[in-house]
Design brief:
Length: 227
């Protein structure tokens, strides 16, 4: 049995001095697709932030893509983030440049040098999200769903071991949410591990998978009832 990609043991998650989640025990293995659900304010984003090093883990143990979260140093964070692909609700594309340039910017920032290799990689990830023909466009020329697909492509650039998606469909209408979800499902079927925070129950019902719930300062696995 290989080592989990993510393991938290008796972890507590804080925002400043206030305890958001306590005694968190979670394990995610390679190839999993896991939902993180819970009402607004229950700690989903705080949980995600702890995983990508935006909030420190001060209590309990945490290991993610071979990084020890408890002993994570400031200088480790860019390297941790290269092994993670993070997708946000509001896409976070750079508005002053084209899609291709958005992706090339990330490749350069993460140490890629060879122009041909970079162009090939950009084409590959755009193809994965069915956006290969739109690379010359600016973000504002794309629909919300298309922008989110580009954000997923960007997350895939460095072959991440785990994709963290925080409310990726939060700004999208139901039909577009399904389209973005189909992309995430495809990527998962091709071997990528995904943790997705959402409060879109329609998606959960349509694409059932392992589900963790944040409630009353705790995280626990819920068993989905069959309709
Ligand atoms: N930057 C911050 N500073 C202090 N407290 C914060 C901060 N961000 C969130 N909190 C608090 O931490 C708790 C958990 O918030 P969090 O954003 O993690 O919840 P969430 O489940 O992601 O909510 P939503 O679905 O609305 O995004 C809330 O009580 C919130 O008020």
């Amino acid at each position: 049995m290989s080592k989990p990609i993510l393991q938290l043991k008796n972890a507590s998650i804080f925002q400043g001095d206030s305890l958001v989640l306590s005694n968190v025990n979670v394990e995610i293995n390679k190839g999993d697709f896991v939902y993180l659900i819970g009402k607004t304010g229950t700690g989903k984003s705080s949980f995600m932030k702890t995983l990508y090093g935006d909030l420190p883990l001060t209590e309990g143990e945490g290991n993610i893509v071979d990084y020890d979260l408890k002993h994570l140093k400031e200088k480790d964070i860019p390297f941790l983030r290269r092994k993670l692909g993070v997708v946000f609700q509001d896409f976070k594309l750079l508005t002053d440049r084209t899609i291709n340039d958005n992706l090339l910017f990330v490749l350069k920032a993460t140490g890629w040098k060879d122009k041909t290799e970079m162009d090939t990689r950009v084409e590959e990830v755009l193809a994965k999200v069915d956006m290969k023909t739109k690379g010359f466009k600016f973000p504002h020329e794309l629909s919300g769903g298309e922008q989110q697909r580009v954000a997923i492509a960007r997350a895939l650039l460095n072959n991440p071991e785990l994709i963290l998606a925080d409310e990726p469909t939060g700004n999208l209408d139901p039909q577009t949410s399904v389209e973005v979800m189909e992309v995430l499902q495809d990527i998962n079927k091709n071997g990528n591990t995904i943790l997705m925070a959402t409060h879109d129950y329609a998606l959960l019902l349509k694409y059932p998978s392992k589900t963790l719930k944040c409630d009353e300062n705790a995280v626990y696995e819920v068993v989905q009832r069959k309709g």
